[in-house]
Design goal:
By secondary structure, the chain is mostly beta strands. It folds into 4 domains: 98 residues, no CATH class; 114 residues, no CATH class; 85 residues, SH3 type barrels (Roll), CATH 2.30.30; 142 residues, L,D-transpeptidase catalytic domain-like (Beta Barrel), CATH 2.40.440. The protein contains 6 helices and 34 strands. A 7-stranded mixed beta sheet has the order 4-5-33-29-30-31-32. The protein has a 6-stranded mixed beta sheet with strand order 17-27-26-25-34-28, with no helix packed on it. It is globular and about 80 Å long.
Length: 554
């Protein structure tokens, strides 16, 4: 220890001695009595700089499509992605915000040099596309049991990211794990054989009516529907109808996660057999008896589409590219066709146009035989009577390339724009209106909003006085713009173009997926949900009623 201390002091105690000229005896004085102190290098800063360089190289490789680094696998139901390596709920003054999340079973490219601190002793892993996840909730090993046995991630290449099923009867149980038949009877009384009437005695009470303590393990305090049915079967006194249950009454406890009413939807991972029974496994990893769920056997085929630019090679008209004037139209006729000018300048039709095809008009109009034709930026004419002309309400400060979405509630028409030019068009289903009946009135809010959250899928449910409770798990392609109101895919109906929702803007799954990946904030690879931030504001959504038709003056 003394040796180290002495050595450490030597540079500070060293003096420059005057040199002596041996011939003359003159002394040269050196004007440097001490060495200047040298600052020790900041090793932490140097390490951070080197780490940043490696991370930058990994991100550059990812952007170039050559990244071959590791990935992180979500080992929790929902793994938060935060902006800096600390929890937002930490000490006051934290700069951390939630950017999004990974869902159990998903995986995302990450930088394999964790940052360890008190907030996450397991280390914070930085994702290649931004944000940090705590190592406590992820794994670098895909064979880790917490990852290996997770449900399959959603198939984001499809309009329907999951298979869906619905409960065929009420009181369908959703278990956290597989149960034996004996244990299931506590929650599924219909599995127990009926008690023979001849064996009933006066002391046992009416047949089928549960006695005190008989159902002590039932997760519900008041299972009215089951008791009502048993009472009717046994001729017991009628129980007053309490109406449809509330969602809170359907929550379970212990091994029972919840119960489903008839018509409730759930996303399906796969079917399997265990404990001498056939089961469905849900996207959350829960188990439902196979016979209680029916698969959705169809998906909406309805969809709009992108506004296609002019292609001279494929155009029958040839010529220059028509410049658009920002007017969007959507084909609403089964008999629409493309028109071009023949050698004599007359209209001739060339090919049919599918219904709900979107175009931008150039502003050039021709009238022939009393029929008005409009030139599209796709290079051909359409009859004005075959299309629905959009009447958007653009924000005054919209940028020349800014993405924004216009929803016309009167026409149930959605058009996506970039600046003043339409890029996508389709029909939607907004909230059902009954202003004279508040219980059946489900208006969609009007105004200018921004998408603030996007989810590949999320559960939507509610207690509606007129309809009873509803629950749809893993609704696809959800884009929230105000509170619980969202643009989202709807796979349970095909009535787009007519109001029918509880207030959200329903899109066909095909349309919803297209707009989901087009709009902001962008969803990074492997993430299940993303939230807006100051650096990544959401796409604007303008929802309005159709413009009033002016009344001619007399």
């Amino acid at each position: 220890m003394l040796t180290l201390l002495t050595c450490a002091l030597l540079p500070a105690c060293h003096e420059e001695h005057p040199s002596v000229d041996a011939a003359s005896g003159d002394v040269d004085v050196v004007d440097a009595p001490f060495d200047a102190p040298v600052d020790a290098p900041d090793l932490d800063a140097l390490a951070a700089e080197q780490r940043a360089g490696r991370l930058g190289a990994a991100r550059a490789a990812f952007d170039a499509g050559t990244y071959d680094g590791g990935e992180l696998y979500a080992a929790a139901v929902r793994t938060s992605v935060v902006s800096v390596p600390e929890w937002p709920e930490g000490d006051a003054g934290t700069n951390s915000t939630r950017l999004g999340y990974l869902r159990h079973g998903s995986h995302a490219p990450a930088f394999a040099e964790p940052i360890v601190n008190d907030d996450c002793p397991e280390g914070w892993y930085e994702l290649i596309e931004g944000g940090f996840v705590c190592g406590k909730y992820v794994s670098t090993d895909p064979t880790n049991p917490a990852v290996k046995f997770a449900a399959n991630p959603p198939n984001i290449a499809n309009a329907m990211p999951y298979r869906y099923g619905y409960a065929v009867s009420s009181d369908t149980p959703v278990y956290k794990r597989v149960l034996s038949l004996a244990d299931r009877k506590k929650f599924e009384p219909w599995l127990a054989p009926p008690v023979a009437a001849a064996t009933a005695t006066a002391s046992s009470g009416p047949v089928g009516i549960p006695q005190v303590g008989e159902e002590s393990d039932n997760p519900y305090d008041d299972p009215t529907e089951t008791h009502r049915k048993r009472g009717r079967d046994a001729g017991a006194h009628a129980v007053k109808d309490a109406g449809p249950p509330k969602l809170g009454e359907l929550r379970g406890r212990g091994v029972l996660a919840r119960k489903m009413m008839r018509g409730f939807y759930v996303a399906i991972d796969r079917d399997f057999k265990a404990a001498n029974a056939h089961w469905w496994r849900t996207s959350e990893g829960f188990a439902i008896p196979y016979e209680r769920i029916a698969l959705q056997g169809w998906a909406p085929e309805f969809h709009g589409g992108w506004v296609k630019p002019f292609d001279p090679a494929a155009s029958d008209a040839g010529g220059d590219v028509p410049e658009g004037n920002g007017t969007a139209v959507l084909v609403n006729s089964e008999y629409a066709v493309k028109y071009v000018l023949d050698d004599k300048g007359k209209m001739k039709w060339t090919a049919p146009i599918p219904k709900v095809t979107a175009f931008e008009l150039s502003g050039e109009t021709k009238t022939e035989g009393g029929v008005v034709y409009q030139l599209t930026t796709s290079g051909f004419y359409v009859r004005l009577g075959d299309v629905m002309v959009a009447t958007p309400q653009p924000p005054e400060d919209v940028g020349p390339k800014e993405k924004w979405i216009d929803v016309d509630l009167g026409r149930q028409l959605l058009v996506a724009f970039e600046g003043k030019h339409p890029v996508y068009g389709t029909r939607v289903s907004s909230g059902r209106r009954s202003p004279w009946d508040p219980e059946h009135d489900h208006p969609t809010p009007t105004g200018t909003f921004r998408i603030y959250e996007k989810h590949v899928s999320t559960t939507m449910d509610g207690d509606v006085a007129s309809d009873g409770p509803y629950s749809i798990e893993d609704v696809p392609w959800v884009m929230y713009f105000q509170g619980s109101y969202a643009l989202h895919g709807a796979f349970w109906h095909n009535g787009f173009g007519s109001p029918r929702s509880h207030g959200c803007v329903n899109l066909s799954p095909i349309d919803a997926r297209e707009l989901f990946f087009w709009s902001e904030p962008r969803l990074p690879k492997g993430w299940h949900g993303v939230f807006t931030s100051g650096a990544q504001p959401g796409t604007r959504v303008v929802i309005h009623e159709p413009p009033a038709v002016p009344v001619p003056k007399k």
